[in-house]
Amino acid sequence: MNVCIVGAGYVGLSTAVGFAEHGHRIACIDIDQKRINDINSGICPIFEPGMEEALKRSIGKGLLKATPDLKAAIASSDVIFISVPTPCDENGKMNTRFIDRASKDIASLLDGYKVIVVKSTVLPGATETIVKGNLEATGKIYGRDFGLCMNPEFLREGHALEDFLKPDRIVIGSSDKKAGDVVEKLYNGFSAPILRTGIKTAEMIKYASNSFLATKITFANEMGNICKLLGIDVYKVMEGVGMDRRINPHFLRAGCGFGGSCFVKDVSALLNKGRELGHEPRLLDAVLKVNAEQRKRMVHQLKARTELKGRRIAVLGLAFNPDTDDVRESAAIDTVQGLLEHGASVVVYDPKAMDNFRRLFPNLIYSESAKEALKDADACIIATDWDEFRKLDSKDFSGMKGNIIIEGRRTLDKSKVPHVDGVCW
Ligand code: NAD
Q1: How confident is the model at residue 374 (pLDDT cuts 50, 70, 90)?
Q2: Using a 6 Å cutoff on CB, does residue 291 contact ligand 1?
Q3: Is the CB of residue 7 below 6 angstroms from any atom belonging to ligand 1?
């Protein structure tokens, strides 16, 4: 099938490359010309394992191209995906300006029946009020000139292509069978159960999933905080807890709080939606508050052990998770901010996320390696569990001036670095 994907970020590009792997012909649209040039040159604009190789493969087969020409891309497509950002405003509410702009652009150029699919995460009702509303505002008739689906994405950054190609489930929300069938056909060859729902239900499944995962990890963190005071290893506890089939072992790794582009904004958007509707979502509110506290813990822990003013503190790991260059809502942001507020001099290193972090904090000391960052440091904080850091042993830390090492994710091997202190273990 011919597919147009509007917004070529983590989700849009994974969708594009994933569908091209299944033989579909893809046109990626983005408003960022550099991104378009990079994609067409086979350069992946984001770091994702396996993505650049797959991108080159798709381009080589003539199955994928990027273009700013939305009109031509729409004209040659059967299905149009929208995968633009849906960030949160300062008040925690979903900001709809990107989805509004993208759907207005599509509406003004639509020429004959196409299925529009919202892949961005949007609150229940948004697909119909914003996207359908913008299409109808140009005189297009639903069912005759366009079909509409909501197809939430569940991929994890760092595993984006793998997760897109091997999802646990594919949710297709539609209010007319014809449009839903087109999208189902697109996923032919994927070996995952397909759940057909209404549009609002599909939108809510994504928010409920992210809220549940954020709650689960927050629960593990809270258990970790109590276990640390009791001198119990929370990882052993969660191993035992996760053996229960009703619970499962995933998302029980206690640490310095969740980050990333989705959990904070999606839980916050749902919390505010609940309030707007007259319901106070106490659990979601607690999850965000506990998480915000958790992300500050490493600095508090360090401050309890040493003076920070004028000290050189190394922060290893800037991405919110390993295997990604994404720093949105990463624990390193709160950590670095806290260290700077206490007057520390901060030296940082990350295998892939330095350029993105530099845009937020241009004035830190950026090192070329973990070893270089550690040299002469008074203390070290590990905020991301990159594999590269797992291999560090005490001789890698021997260049430090001090000997405090605090990790926010269980990363180091305690038998090789005995004096490491975990955030909640
Ligand atoms: P992103 O910021 O990585 O990419 C968005 C892209 O859209 C950018 O390249 C931007 O230039 C482009 N864009 C913005 N407005 C545009 C327009 N009018 N026309 C064309 N291009 C436009 O965002 P992302 O992380 O891929 O997230 C996209 C959506 O998917 C969000 O709603 C997010 O919540 C959801 N989602 C993200 C993830 C994830 O792990 N990143 C997972 C599941 C769902």
Answers
A1: very high
A2: no
A3: yes
In angstroms, the Cα distances linking 368 to 351, 374, 393 are 9, 11, 18
Average pLDDT on 48-65 reads: 97
Q: What is the 13 CA–ligand 1 centroid distance (Å)?
A: 9
Give the pTM: 0.96
Q: What are the structural domain ranges in the chain?
A: 2-196, 207-294, 297-422
Mapped to the 3 state alphabet, what secondary structure does 80-109 carry? Answer: EEECCCCCECCCCCECCHHHHHHHHHHHHH
Assess whether the region 2-196 and the region 297-422 belong to the same CATH fold: yes
Structure tokens at 129: 């009020």
Q: What's the pLDDT tens digit per position in 252-287?
A: 999 999 999 999 999 999 999 999 999 999 999 999
The pLDDT value given to residue 32: 97
Which atom belonging to ligand 1 lies closest to the Cα atom of 46?
A: 3
Confirm or reject: Cβ of 81 under 6 Å from ligand 1.
no
Distances (CA, A) of 326 to 296, 301, 315, 350: 20, 26, 16, 11
User: For the domain with range 297-422, which CATH number is right: 3.40.50.2300, 1.20.1250.10, 3.30.420.40, 3.40.50.720?
Assistant: 3.40.50.720
Reported as a pLDDT band with limits 50, 70 and 90, residue 237 is very high
Active-site amino acid positions: 262
Task: Give the pLDDT confidence score for residue 397 in this predicted structure.
Answer: 96
Residue nearest to atom 38 of ligand 1 (CA): 11
245 CA → ligand 1 middle, Å: 34
Query: What fold is seen in the domain 2-196?
Result: Rossmann fold (3.40.50)
